[in-house]
Structures are given as structure tokens and as C-alpha cells.
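Long-time lurker, first post. I've been practising inverse folding by hand and with some scripts of my own, and I keep getting stuck on stretches where the C-alpha cells seem ambiguous. Below is the full C-alpha cell string for one chain I'm working on. Before anyone asks, I'm not after the true native sequence, just a reasonable design that respects the backbone. If someone could post their per-position residues I'd love to compare against what I wrote down in my notebook.
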């Protein structure tokens, strides 16, 4: 077998389309992935409110404050902790309330996922999932910067599917 036969074998052919981009700018990895996830939840909840009949959705996100108490000024660490708490919620477990201090500022995260049974109708439950983040204001008190609350009244299995926005 000569070199020409070897090069012409289909198994040995390689694509001639090779592109190399030297000096191309790649996007730096973002540090705000948890805050971005909270933003995505806000959008998702607003869409859910419009689509699902009987679903009560309350979203509140405080933005663009001159007092430095707003979601934009909240450290990524607090947003990540809130998501970790939210993702760990199980139905009818006690409320999770956690406080933390980051860069000298107090934060509180409250989250709960519970059902209230209707004693007159065992098939009728009010399920609620809630996440709140409070941040210390310039006055020293804790103020809500984020509140996601979703409630649905109906059979437990159906309500669980509608309320759990994670």
C-alpha cells in the first residue's frame, strides 16, 4: 500500500474546517447566579398568577433604593442561602427562620411550606409556600426586600403541584 492509498482512505480523512479565534473575548463567569435565579422565580410567579385559576400569588421585590436597602444591594451570599433554604423545604415542616450578618448588615430569611386542612372538607386544603428576605435599613430595622408567597385552595395533590414554584 502506498502513501496515496492510505491518505485517500475514508476512515483517515479529517475535516478541513478548523477555525481558531485568537484573542476572542469570552464572557466572564457571572457572580450573581443566585440573584439571577431569584429574578427568574419572580418572572415565573408573575406568569403563574396570570395562567392558573384559583392560584393566589404575591410577589414583592424592592429595587433601586437610595437607602441601599434593596435587592441589588443584597450580597450574593444571602441570595444563595435563601435558595438553599427554599430548595430544602418540605411540606408541613416548621418554618425556617435564619439570621445572618454579611459585611456588617443584618439579614433574615423566612421560609415555610404548609397546608391548612379544612375540617369540614378533608379534600379541601389551603397550601402555602413562602420565601421572605429581610434586610437591615439605614434606621437599623429589618425591612422586606423580597417576598414570594403562593397559595392554592383545593385537593392536596393538586395544590402541591400548583403551589411549589421551585
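-- Answer (accepted) --
I ran through it position by position. Result:
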Amino acid at each position: 500500500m502506498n502513501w496515496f492509498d492510505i491518505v485517500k482512505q475514508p476512515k483517515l480523512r479529517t475535516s478541513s474546517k478548523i477555525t481558531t479565534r485568537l484573542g476572542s473575548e469570552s464572557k466572564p463567569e457571572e457572580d450573581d447566579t443566585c440573584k439571577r435565579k431569584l429574578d427568574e422565580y419572580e418572572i415565573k410567579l408573575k406568569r403563574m398568577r396570570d395562567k392558573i385559576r384559583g392560584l393566589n400569588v404575591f410577589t414583592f421585590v424592592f429595587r433601586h433604593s437610595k437607602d441601599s436597602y434593596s435587592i441589588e444591594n443584597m450580597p450574593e451570599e444571602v441570595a444563595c442561602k435563601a435558595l438553599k433554604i427554599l430548595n430544602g423545604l418540605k411540606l408541613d415542616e416548621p418554618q425556617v427562620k435564619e439570621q445572618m450578618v454579611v459585611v456588617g448588615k443584618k439579614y433574615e430569611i423566612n421560609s415555610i411550606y404548609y397546608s391548612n386542612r379544612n375540617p369540614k372538607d378533608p379534600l379541601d386544603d389551603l397550601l402555602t409556600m413562602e420565601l421572605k428576605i429581610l434586610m437591615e435599613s439605614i434606621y437599623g430595622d429589618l425591612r422586606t426586600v423580597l417576598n414570594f408567597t403562593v397559595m392554592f385552595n383545593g385537593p392536596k395533590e393538586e395544590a402541591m403541584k400548583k403551589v411549589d414554584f421551585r
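A couple of notes from the structure itself: The mean pLDDT is 82. The chain is about 25% helix and 35% strand. Happy to go over any region you disagree with.
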